[in-house]
Amino acid sequence: MSDQPAAPARPESVRLRQSLDALPAYAPGKPATVREGLTAYKISSNENPYPPLPSVLDVVRDAAASMNRYPDMAVAGLTAALAERLDVPAERITTGPGSVGVLDQLVRATCDDGDEVVFAWRSFEAYPIITTLAGAVPVMVPLAPGARHDLDAMADAITARTRLVLVCTPNNPTGTTVGAAELEAFLDRVPTDVLVVIDEAYLEFVDADDAPDAMALHRARPNVAVLRTFSKAYGLAGLRVGYAVAHEPVARTLRKTALPFGVNSLAQVAAVASLEAADELEVRVKDLVAERERVVAALREQGWEIPDQQANFVWFDLGEDTPAFAEACEAEGLTVRPYLTDGVRATIAEPEANDRLVEVAGRFLAERPRT
Ligand SMILES: *Cc1c(COP(=O)(O)O)cnc(C)c1O
């Protein structure tokens, strides 16, 4: 008599979240391929081409000697330095491992399952990934002609489920900014219980006359927060530190959704030292902006239609020619960032890399079959 229950099935693999099946993993910028006799440049990640400042390296070296200890979880030194610099109460500042870390905290602080996050598309690739990982729903609003945010369409896309709106200015990867007046008009249309985050990862490179003053908007409106990073202009991409400035109820919740000890001790001291060296860093930023203007002018001279560029990269609106252009760059030792059949983003880097980019682009345009 064997009426014992059948042995439970033994599946071959563990059960994972089904909602993640369709989600692509974040694709980092490709490393440069090394070619004989040709210096290769990785211009696919918007990194700062300058090496760390000696003053910053020094404090990082010193801090490395106590890496057996946990970092200060309150990130007190950096928070105080930022509060003073930005002239806001320290309670409004929250830090995280890169601004993508803070972005994750923002989505988790605002969205329950199925709530919506509105942002432009194309924009920063991490937006849909972080939104979906948190169980929220990305609402992607196509860019307007000129690769700019369509703020009217974004306001129209807000529903009763919207909890968060991301405005990326300058926009990654198209390099365009939103205007101060249009942003103000947009904010007037956003319900005051929906958080608007202005992602200013490239703020330091902006020289447009009509750029918004995000900090002033934050001061004037309880539902506006500002997101910034030390990865780009400050050149600390490898250390991972960014921050948000948000009104207190939001900031308090961001501290709850942060992973404990997210900002490591080397990043904390490096960020403080970088703020202290802001004048030195600004010289570098000015040089990069001058290089951007030089490259954009040369490309337009060749016949490229380049939208107004306000960050540390250039956007090529290439459509179907995107893969071919990326290959042409790769063949000359330049690793750029292609986006399917939308376009290519190329970081402003060392002058030699920039010169080569202009050369490749000129040749590509001359040889491209007219359609
Ligand atoms: C690079 C970037 C960030 C942040 O990067 P971190 O290194 O995580 O601070 C945030 N937003 C945009 C639009 C970016 O391009």
What would you note in describing this structure?
The chain is an alpha/beta fold and 371 residues long. It has helices at 54-64, 76-86, 98-110, 126-133, 151-156, 180-189, 214-220, 248-257, 265-276, 278-302, 322-331, 351-367, and strands at residues 41-42, 93-96, 116-121, 137-142, 162-168, 195-199, 224-229, 242-245, 313-317, 334-335, 337-339, 343-347. The strands form three sheets. It has a seven-stranded mixed sheet with strand order 2-8-7-6-5-3-4, with helices on both faces. Helix 7 links the parallel strand 6 and strand 7. The longest helix has 25 residues, at 278-302. The model has no long low-confidence stretch (mean pLDDT 95).
Describe the secondary structure blueprint for this structure.
Elements: E1 41-42, H1 54-64, H2 76-86, E2 93-96, H3 98-110, E3 116-121, H4 126-133, E4 137-142, H5 151-156, E5 162-168, H6 180-189, E6 195-199, H7 214-220, E7 224-229, E8 242-245, H8 248-257, H9 265-276, H10 278-302, E9 313-317, H11 322-331, E10 334-335, E11 337-339, E12 343-347, H12 351-367
Parallel strand pairs: 1-10, 3-4, 3-5, 5-6, 6-7
Antiparallel strand pairs: 2-8, 7-8, 9-12, 11-12
Helix pairs in contact: 1-9, 2-9, 3-4, 3-8, 10-12
Subunit structure: Homodimer.
Domain Aminotransferase class I/classII large: 43-359
Enzyme class: transferase
Uncertain segments are none
N/C terminus separation = 79 Å
Note the run of SSEs as H and E: EHHEHEHEHEHEHEEHHHEHEEEH
Q: If helices are DSSP runs of H or I spanning 4 or more residues, what is the number of helices?
A: 12
The biggest beta sheet is recorded as: 7 strands, mixed
- Mean pLDDT level: 95
Beta strand %? 5-15%
List the strand order in the largest sheet.
2-8-7-6-5-3-4
